[in-house]
Every structure is written in C-alpha cells, then in structure tokens.
Amino acid sequence: MKNQYFGDIGDYGKYGMLQFLAEHGITISVNWYLTQDDGSADGKFIKYLSKERFRKYSPALFDVLKEYIVDKNRRDVLAVNEVDLIPNAKYYTEPLPALETIPAAERKRCREEWHHKALAFCAGTDLVFDTLLFGRI
Fold first, then answer.
1. Phi/psi class of residue 26: alpha, beta or left (left: φ > 0; alpha: ψ in -120 to 50)?
2. CA neighbor of 69 nearest in space, from 38, 91, 39, 47
3. Phi and psi for 9 in degrees, rounded to 5?
4. How far is 74 from 31, CA to CA, in rounded Å?
5. Predicted structure pTM score
6. Cα separation of 37 and 34, whole Å?
7. Helix H segments across 1-137?
8. CB neighbours (10 Å) of residue 3?
9. What whole-number distance in Å separates Cα of residue 80 and Cα of residue 18?
10. Which of 57, 136, 49, 124 is nearest to 89 (CA)?
11. How many CB atoms lie within 10 A of CB 57?
12. Phi, psi of 131 (to 5 degrees)
C-alpha cells in the first residue's frame, strides 16, 4: 500500500466491507504493508467523492474520505486509524524498508523479519486484512 492510493474508489469498497464486518462482531487487524509513494498515477480514482450518488452506500465513510482527500488534500492511510473508520481495529503501520536501501543479499531476510513482526502484532484478531493481497505494491 502507498499513501498515494488512499481513498480511491477501491478503498471505499474495502473499508466499507471491513466496517460492516467490525460492526457485526469480527475483530480486525489491518496490515498496511506500507511502502513509499512512487509518483505514478495509481490511486487517481477519487472523482467518485464529487458525486453525491456514491455517498448512499456508506455516508459516514464517504464523508471522512471526502474530508481527507478533497478538503484536506491528505492522502495518508494513517487517517483511517485517526478516525476509527474500522471500529476497534488494530493497525500495523511500520513501513516496509525501501529495497534500494538494503543490500540485495539482505532483502529477503529483512522482508521476512518485517512480516513476522506484522503477524505478531495482528495475532488475536478474527481477520487480518493484508493490503498486499488487496492493494498494490
């Protein structure tokens, strides 16, 4: 996941699903699998936030995403943590080390170490939402 993706149309659906599950008793951890922005155009699908017809699916979620992305121009996954978008969720926010800063021989070990920390943090919840599986890296 990259901050530049935060709040695009795909996130609206994912966060809505996670909200629904949390509101129905499922405990959730979010493993952001956060990497550095890359300057690409990915995550650009935010025009839905200017169309009131999309608000009906999850008004509170829509309003928060619109506030952060349109009003505050803030593309930051940590916003989800700040406003408790997913009730009582735990968020693993340690970014993955940038590969270019790690010697090639150490990259696999470094990634595995990061992943083990993430799994340990997320232990004890019913569902672990891993953005690597549902996002882009």
1. beta
2. 47
3. -55, -35
4. 20
5. 0.81
6. 9
7. 9-23, 59-66, 78-82, 107-122, 131-134
8. 19
9. 12
10. 124
11. 12
12. -70, -15
For residue 13, give both structure tokens.
Answer: 């659906």
Give domain limits for the chain: 3-134
3-state secondary structure of 58: coil
- Closest residue by Cα to residue 48 from 13, 1, 24: 13
CA torsion, points 20, 26, 29, 31, in degrees to nearest 10? Answer: -60
Strand ranges of the sheet holding 28-31, from the earlier edge strand across to the other edge:
90-92, 28-31, 127-130
Average pLDDT, the chain: 86
pLDDT digits (tens, 9 = 90+) for 52-77: 999 999 999 999 999 988 888 888 88
127-130 and 28-31: which strand pairing?
parallel
Q: How far is CA 53 from CA 6, 50, 57, 82, in A?
A: 20, 9, 9, 26
d(CA 69, CA 4): 10
Provide the sign of the torsion angle of the four alpha carbons 127, 36, 41, 108, taken in this order. negative
Neighbours of 22 (CB within 10 A): 19
